[in-house]
Write a structure and sequence with these properties.
Blueprint: E1 16-18, E2 25-27, H1 44-49, H2 59-69
Antiparallel strand pairs: 1-2
Length: about 70
């Protein structure tokens, strides 16, 4: 039997945004409490890549691929 903790919040009730880089939805996290209005990316990886243009390859991925090939 599960116990109900008054401090826990169901994830479905948390605020959500869409990542500017990967376009996936992500939920509010406690560490973002102070600046939730400024959060645009779901992870550090996405914040490093930035928004992708439709139909074009990501320049960061292209540079990494080129570096690995040599």
């Amino acid at each position: 039997m599960k116990t109900v903790n008054a401090k826990r919040t169901d994830k479905a009730q948390l605020a959500q945004k869409t990542c500017a880089a990967c376009a996936r939805p992500f939920s509010w996290r406690k560490k973002w409490a102070r600046d939730w209005t400024h959060v645009r990316y779901c992870s550090r990886r996405c914040s490093g890549n930035g928004p992708k243009a439709e139909g074009t390859a990501n320049q960061v991925d292209a540079r990494n691929h080129k570096a690995r090939a040599t």
